[in-house]
């Protein structure tokens, strides 16, 4: 078993220096927390420019080649003195190649699929995924030293693949912004942000739920984010128009940083009605600010609701309409306050990285 002060971890993620996505932020927060615990961390990346990093975080550019999918070239040199490599996401060829390199040089690797082995995701483009599994993904999964999931309930997704190895359970972390706290919803709008994937994120149900409310009780709804696929935003615009909700619904660009947290602080409520979700960065961020948050029964939603820290509804428009009404009730403020406490106590990056590291050390 390795001790913390001699552990060397390589996190391989080609887009680690690109954008503000959930995986990118996770790679960085995890790495910085590990560095502060005296773990030597190396981030292997492809795109973007390297900023200065504190502690023992080292940035190593890895050349990638190939078309239409690029794979790493020379990753074996980056792994030469590593005790563990961490791979992020799933169903991508660069991970398949990275796993093969790790097996060749005898470096164990941990997979962090971020919910990508959920049966409902596997069902999307099922024929292609079945072929991909037989040709590539099965060897990657079965060769892993361990697989990281966010909640205990997600173990079954991994076991259903036939994987019987070790599983690391630790949630994603949340960046706590103490300067932003819910102001009671002074601006009166309902907020959602994320990727515009209407089916996955339940945005179609959310629009229908809004239509079920009488105009006099219908709050303005602000939707922000990028298209998850071509046409996602347009599909929602058409649905809004067909239901005559143009007065109440605005569709905007992605929001980040202080703008995002400021919008959370002023919202009447936050609603995140996903049909499935690996973690849910957006509702976790909303809960951290103390805004009353409506969730469906994905693992984080159930976790918060079990602590009276979220408004739990079923994934259907009628139940969502009831949830929206609940954000305007007096007890919503108490729910939001408890949510902020839960996130600060259980989901700080330092806390979740500590749980992750304790389990990983036991594997090596």
Please outline the helices and strands.
Elements: E1 8-12, H1 22-36, E2 40-45, E3 57-61, E4 63-65, E5 71-73, H2 75-78, E6 84-88, H3 93-104, E7 109-112, H4 119-122, H5 126-142, E8 146-149, H6 155-159, E9 166-169, E10 190-193, H7 198-201, H8 203-212, E11 221-224, H9 232-242, E12 249-252, H10 257-266, E13 269-272, H11 281-289, E14 293-295, H12 299-305, E15 311-312, H13 317-326, H14 331-346, H15 349-361
Parallel strand pairs: 1-2, 1-6, 2-3, 6-7, 7-8, 8-9, 10-11, 10-13, 11-12, 13-14, 14-15
Antiparallel strand pairs: 4-5
Helix pairs in contact: 1-15, 3-5, 8-13, 11-14
Provide a quick synopsis of the model:
The chain is α/β, with parallel strands linked by helices and 364 residues long.
Shape: globular
Oligomer: single chain
Helix count from the secondary structure assignment? 15
**Overall radius of gyration:** 21 Å
Mean pLDDT, all residues: 94
Through-space gap between termini: 5 Å
Helix content: 40-55%
Mind describing the biggest β-sheet? 7 strands, parallel
Percentage of β-strand residues: 15-25%
Q: Which parts are unreliable, with pLDDT below 50 for 5 consecutive residues or more? A: none
Order of helix and strand elements from N to C terminus: EHEEEEHEHEHHEHEEHHEHEHEHEHEHHH
Which strand order spans the largest sheet, edge to edge or round the barrel?
A: 3-2-1-6-7-8-9
* Secondary structure category: alpha/beta
- Compute the number of strand runs: 15
Structural summary, described in words:
By secondary structure, this protein is of the alpha/beta class. It has 15 helices and 15 strands. A 7-stranded parallel sheet has the order 3-2-1-6-7-8-9, with helices on both faces. A 6-stranded parallel sheet has the order 12-11-10-13-14-15, sandwiched between helices. Strand 8 (146-149), helix 6 (155-159) and strand 9 form a beta-alpha-beta unit. The longest helix is centred in the middle third of the chain and has 17 residues, at 126-142.
